[in-house]
Amino acid sequence: MIYSIGLIFVTLLIVISLDDFIWDIYILFRSIKGKNRTSLITYKELRDTVPGFLAVIVAAYNEENVLEEVIENLIDTNHYPSSMYHIFLGVYPNDPGTLKVADRLSNRHPNVHKVVHVLDGPSSKADNLNNVIKNILEFEREKGIRFKGIVVHDSEDLVHPYELLVENYLLNYHKAIQMPVFPLQEMPNIKNVFKNIISGTYADEFAENHYTLLKSRNATNSFVPSAGTGFALSREIIDSFPDNNIFPVGSLTEDYKLSLLLKQKGYNLHYVLEEVERLKGDGKVVREFISTRSIFPSTYSAAVRQKSRWIYGITMQSFKLKDIFRHNNLSFTSKYSLYKDWKAKFGNLLLGPGYLIFMYFLLSLVLDIPTMYPRFSLSWYLMIFLTLMMIERQFLRGRAVKNVYGFKSAFISVFFPPLLPFRMFVGNIINFHATARAWKMYLFKTNTKRKRKAPKWNKTDHEFVESRVLKTFRRNLGDILLHEKLISPKELQYALKKSSTNGLRLGEVLIKEGIVTEENVLISLCKVNKEIYLKTKPNMVSKKDLELWGNDFLVENIMIPILNTGNTIVFAISNPDDKERLISLLRDQKNVKEDIKFIYSTKESILNSIRNAKENSYTLKQIKLLESLTKSNTILLEEAITALKYLDLEIDIQQILDSMGFLRREVQQAS
Question: Do residues 251 and 126 make contact, with C-beta atoms less than 8 angstroms apart?
């Protein structure tokens, strides 16, 4: 009897896991041959891509504790032009706390908009998102613009500073994009190993899925599911849904079901795994992923509730396996990927009995009880093979955790203690319990004869990162220079040491040592300080304007007029520390009454533009058109300056405005 139980169990485990083992070997050989490597996007490619309007959606209910900090951090740290993205907060009329936060944010920031649902909450996340999308389309009609895409985030997300830049670039090549999601984790030590064990199981699983699994699915053109956050959809996909109800309202995992619908429609969800170098506070240079980070549940009950919802929504609600295998639009690898997701509702149930059998096996080594796996029997050989498969899976998980979180986390995840890692054990028990709960939800559904109610938003309570931790995610001058490959880690560490010793700014040291140019430093500082850099050229300024302001005055103060909208005059200067002095000078000596705004260029570019200014040029005509559009309120001043950054002799301003998302008819009418 004992032998039969052991044989049946080990056979079931091998049957349900063998395909995973074969898939892992296949992907390993693809990686060795170089077919599974993600291409690196350079910072120059991101910077040189004309920014299109992006709509960031955050659906919120009872999120007053985190929403304000999340949005403020997003606005403060991201490197996308502030006038080119709008944040839409989906809130409910019966949620006064979140409404107050949304009011404060929308009053404080012109690109933040409160969208109040017509229904009391919570309805469902899908319903909230669909309602916001309809309001976004109305916003487009009012403003005469067209969004390049929408980006979905949760109300507790820590959004990477480069994410919108990456999505703007990739939306030129892909219709749907998923960024990695990695749970935030404390650096592990003896004191917090058990304190963080529940959230640590999320870190392990997301590292394995988002570092290994989704990357391999993307490389093999398989089905890539959305994670529901860090998720971007092109305007073309929005238009492909005539009623604009993009997210399936009846699903607990609307993100997964939507990505499946898109795959069936022929849209591939592109998974992005991009790394950047950056400088830590201790002077060390590390690599990090451009990913969404957030704090995941830290209690057993919250983890079980959340994972029950995921398992039920994905494996029991989103699709039927027989329909998938009949679907002609899905490739074999996509069908197999869906099968891998579907079988989790069975595989997870074997985890509980598996540990009981393992305990019996250990006891049989020291107690006089019947042996479950007699040596050299069929079950013994099968158990050896199963053990090898488990070691292989454990190795792959450790590799993923190491690449995302480092060696310490990998050790805690898969080697502490040896043979039966405690964190993996806890994660498996959570998955077993959550799967059993999902089966209960499925088997004991509400009587179908009763009136069905719309599914409510089954939310998880959220918290956000402490301010001291947030500082570590901000970019600085060294980070930008590293990302642009303008400086090596060794050169940066040398310059930092010299800067500290001599009491000089890092930029000054880098320029004096000839490591980077003034232009390199100025461009990077503008990114850090959310200012605009523009390489001025002689064809951007007329001799008439130079005479108006005085050549000597402009040369002496190293400044040049760029735009005059009637209400605001925009000057290019080279020294950010000179702003207050120049404002006083312009007010006192030149009697300037208009608002004054500065953008930045190098000293060399400004002086060259003054010395070689043109009497008339095509570029000057384009600048005059921008001034006209700004005066008529067709575009904002910030939008005009952004467009000017991409103006070249071979591209006219209309093409740039088209790429940004301004409707041609609105621009033509204004001009």
Answer: yes
